[in-house]
Design goal:
By secondary structure, the chain is of the alpha/beta class. Helix content is 32%, strand content 25%. The longest helix is centred in the last third of the chain and has 13 residues.
Length: 262
């Protein structure tokens, strides 16, 4: 399995996942030229995809959906809540419906769409499983429920939001109403909330991506340092962690991450 975050942030989100038989994109907030450039920069194939999976109806996650269908002649998977929320998605004829909480299969990948807390219509994260490996993407959520953490525990890789530093957000230029939205249980996870998850994480993941970092209310060094502090507080570390520790990967808005191969 190969995983690469092609871009993550308020200007566009897209994650590439490849197995032996299947190539997927999870969200696509980029036009075809930007998507092609990012794939080429990462050294990934650009000629074929089997599906695009959409997490929710905010434009930075679906903006490139129509172009994706036109270029690759592959379907878009979304739940009814997301499709009904976005008029543009209703115009796409290569559409496959899934129901939140009910797994489905694309190629050799079993996809489990699990509910998350975010201010959109029926938002989801995705847990993907193929050939004995599993990973999860949850990039827009205001808080971590027990059900979400359970989905993340049995994964080999995770892409999870670390959106804002609480102090930078407090002192920043956003209006108070937007600050309240971002920090609500339906908003976005802070660095501290992300680190808190890592401090109690007892799963098997060896690769964890910090996603959806805010340009205005976060700093990559602060986010990474806060995440490392969370890892240092873990009480569930084993001897296995000493020689095969969790690797943290920063995502970026303007360029892809290195490709992780499992």
């Amino acid at each position: 399995m190969r995983v690469c975050v092609l871009g993550s942030g308020s200007s566009g989100n897209c994650t590439y996942v490849e197995t032996r038989r299947t190539r997927l994109l999870i969200d696509n907030g980029f036009g075809p030229r930007s998507l092609r450039r990012r794939l080429q920069e990462a050294g990934l194939p650009i000629d074929h995809f089997d599906a695009l999976l959409i997490t929710h109806g905010h434009i930075d996650h679906w903006k490139g959906a129509e172009a994706f269908v036109r270029v690759y002649q592959a379907p878009v998977y979304a739940n009814v809540g997301t499709r009904n929320e976005v008029a543009e998605l209703q115009q796409i004829d290569r559409w496959e419906e899934f129901r939140t909480g009910e797994p489905f299969v694309v190629g050799d990948v079993e996809v489990d769409p699990f509910p998350v807390l975010h201010d959109a219509a029926d938002p989801v994260g995705f847990r993907l499983r193929a050939a004995g490996l599993a990973g999860a993407v949850a990039t827009d959520l205001g808080s971590l429920t027990e059900a979400v953490e359970e989905r993340l525990s049995a994964c080999d890789w995770l892409i999870l939001e670390s959106n804002h530093d609480e102090e930078l957000l407090r002192l920043g230029p956003y209006p108070w109403s937007l600050k309240q939205r971002l920090t609500s249980r339906l908003g976005h996870l802070s660095n501290r909330a992300f680190a808190g998850f890592l401090s109690r994480f007892d799963g098997q993941a060896r690769h964890v991506f910090l996603a959806h970092l805010s340009r205005n209310n976060n700093d990559p060094d602060i986010a990474l340092d806060t995440a490392r502090q969370g890892l240092n507080r873990r009480s569930t570390g084993t001897f296995h962690d000493l020689w095969n520790p969790i690797q943290l990967h920063l995502t970026h808005q303007s360029r892809p991450t290195p490709v992780v191969e499992l």
